[in-house]
Design goal:
The chain is mostly helical and about 450 residues long. About 75% of the residues lie in helices and about 0% in strands. The protein has 17 helices and two strands. The chain starts with 16 loop residues before the first helix and ends in a 15-residue tail after the last strand.
């Protein structure tokens, strides 16, 4: 007697087809991109460059990212988001593929790398708002926290694993092959994202709500962004916090490690602890569903200051690793809480534009922070600059907590209503979303 044995995978009800495709493609690109960061630096060194040239190639990626982000957000709300994502992935496939070929053939020059990095940053500027808008519109309110936690767990796991594998592969085969793998990852992700389904009704509804022209869309997105004190307040906070944290991690951390911790090995262990904290924070958010989502998230920004303070005190490596672990966990709690707030408060047809303003504020100051890290250390001393990083993080976080909307914004299922996912993975508002105050005002 034969039994019918099914080998099909069973997913939870909230993990829609679109969500699974988004999570899988993000994992794939995370593996490649985290490795490419390591490989591009070694490719510069292999071409005869030094620290200045590494910084130049990194800046070449960041500048177009900042310049084109707002346009990318408007385009992503005007066109089908999954098509924008696929086009951006194809651009990254080409740019990273050419980068790999030049490195593997020994023909790569610094200006080649800078130009190709700039193309990659341009692709990211169009991809990031489209991806965030698509992800936020793919889950319903009842399961948003768990879905976002799972998504971030996959991305963080890919980042940790990709960086580790890249280090080994660079040592064995050279940076060119890691860059080739990154190009292949973008190609695979483009294929996965091309399978995303969006209902024609959702696209028509979004088209009917658009303003007149691209500039009109940008103005409409700005009004949506500026009308919410909790939103622009936290973005302003993170424009500085991200800059000082980047300076502490990228510039001051290696210097303290060289002087007091024993070099690159202990610093690498501390960074690994940070990655482990990301994973633990994601696991925590699978279970914990804070009612006052922004209050919980912003309170968890205070521990962001711990690594800079630990470096300023030149504590032993185990204590530094503990500080990095706690900071990594806290970042994940904030990240999931922030995604929940955007998901439930921002109208679906404006998600990508608001995400673009969020990204713009969050990354625009990072190159400035890195550039000013050296002069700040010269002016205040290395340890004075680190205390400055920690102090600014604490001061700005305390300031944001004075905003009533940050303290009061509640999870949507505690207020009633929310979003449900319609056919094609697009949410349907059950009541007006957005505004200021308690987050229940009508659409602007």
């Amino acid at each position: 007697m034969k039994r019918d044995v099914s080998h099909r995978l069973h997913f939870p009800d909230w993990a829609s087809r679109n969500f699974r495709l988004l999570a899988a493609s993000a994992f794939v690109t995370g593996l490649g991109a985290s490795g490419a960061v390591v490989a591009s630096a070694f490719a510069v060194l292999q071409a005869g460059g030094g620290g200045t040239e590494i910084g130049l190639v990194a800046a070449a990626r960041t500048v177009p990212l900042v310049v084109f982000l707002l346009i990318g957000g408007a385009v992503a709300d005007r066109l089908p988001r999954h098509r924008v994502m696929v086009a951006a992935n194809c651009l990254n496939t080409v740019s990273q593929g050419l980068f790999a070929v030049l490195v593997l053939t020994g023909r790569a020059e610094i200006w080649h790398m800078a130009v190709l990095s700039a193309l990659g940053g341009t692709g990211q500027a169009f991809f990031a708002p489209a991806n965030e808008g698509m992800l936020l519109s793919t889950v319903d309110s009842a399961h948003a926290a768990r879905a976002f936690a799972v998504f971030r767990l996959g991305v963080n796991g890919a980042n940790v694993g990709g960086a580790a594998l890249a280090g080994a592969l660079v040592a064995l085969a050279g940076p060119g092959w890691v860059l080739a793998v990154d190009a292949a990852c973008f190609a695979v992700a483009a294929g996965l994202r091309s399978l995303l389904r969006v209902s024609p009704a959702a696209l028509r509804d979004r088209a009917e709500r658009r303003g007149g022209g691209l500039l009109g869309d940008l103005r409409d997105g700005w009004r949506e962004f500026a009308s919410r004190r909790w939103l622009w307040g936290i973005v302003v906070q993170f424009s500085v916090v991200n800059a000082v944290i980047t300076a502490a991690d990228a510039v001051y951390g290696p210097l303290v490690a060289r002087e007091h911790l024993g070099g690159a090995g202990p610093w690498g262990a501390a960074l690994a602890a940070f990655g482990a904290g990301n994973l633990l924070g994601g696991l925590l958010m699978l279970r914990w569903r804070p009612r006052r989502i922004l209050l919980a998230g912003v309170l968890c920004v205070f521990p962001f200051s711990l690594p800079a303070a630990a470096l300023a005190l030149a504590v032993p490596v185990p204590l530094l690793a503990c500080a990095m672990l706690v900071a990594g966990m806290s970042i994940e709690v904030f990240g999931v809480a922030w995604m929940m707030a955007l998901h439930q408060e921002i109208p679906e047809d404006k998600l990508s534009r608001v995400a673009a303003y969020d990204w713009f504020g969050s990354v625009s100051m990072m190159p400035i922070g890195t550039a000013l890290a050296g002069p700040a250390a010269d002016a205040f001393g290395l340890y004075g600059a680190l205390w400055g990083c920690a102090g600014l993080t604490v001061l700005l976080t305390g300031a944001v907590l004075t905003v009533p909307e940050v303290r009061r914004l509640r999870r949507v299922d505690d207020r009633g209503g929310g979003r449900t996912v319609a056919q094609g993975g697009q949410p349907t508002p059950k009541e007006p979303s957005g505004g200021i105050g308690e987050g229940t005002a009508s659409l602007s």
